[in-house]
Amino acid sequence: MQKNIIVSYGEARFFSTKIIPFVISAILLFLLLQIVQSAGLSESQIGAEEEQFGNNDVPSGFGDENLYTLEVNLILREEIEPYLQPINGQLVEVFWDMRDIETQEMKEFTLTSNTDTEGKAIFDLFPGQYKLRINYNGIARNETIIIIPNTENNIDWVISKYSIGEYNLEFRDRNGGIIYPEETIRMIYRGAPQLIDPSSIQLSSELGDINIIFNVKEVINRAEISIMELSPEESFVVGNFSPDNPPKALIYSIDIDKRAGL
Description:
Elements: H1 2-38, H2 43-53, E1 68-77, E2 84-86, E3 91-99, E4 106-114, E5 120-125, E6 128-136, E7 139-147, E8 153-164, E9 167-170, E10 178-179, E11 185-190, E12 200-204, E13 211-222, E14 225-232, E15 236-237, E16 248-259
Parallel strand pairs: 1-8
Antiparallel strand pairs: 1-2, 1-5, 3-4, 3-6, 6-7, 8-16, 9-11, 10-15, 11-14, 12-13, 12-16, 13-14
């Protein structure tokens, strides 16, 4: 009887030396999970963070050492002196899409800056793809840019403004004297400027009752004659146009010079 007891005790002792490490490991794993949960990070959130910051198409990284400077130079080019001048106090916007860790939805984020007296707007951005937008008195454009590490990311955004002398407008009145944005009108004028890729046309009157921006859809230059297909950004009333109140016509083009990684 005593021999059996000794054997059983030996087997129990041998068994306990094997199971104790597993018990300790289970306890440590449980404590680790408690710490992670208390920090508010679930397994899916951790995976989402890894996916987000591993994507080169969106801003990534942590700390100021991963930020790179984007310099935007906004310049107005005119037909009269000083011909070239910086545009100060102009809002410049930078957009990008990034996944929200909490909702797992893609959201749009924005940074804004106003140009200084030299026409410069400065941004500190993580590497990735962005949309740059400038709306100068209704003359707007979006441009895709890519911030690349260890490079000088500079953009010259040049807005050229030209005046048009005499011109003709052709359109069909289908709505009792109202032209809507989905409709197209035609502008015809002779002489300079003849542009290949103009951005917008602005018609404005001295009385202030006409101020319309048209987006240029198509341009045909024939000899000295330019023909443009235009669509208004907003509806307007044709009756506001009259020989006694002729609107002044300005044509705008936007040239973007990207340097370095952009």
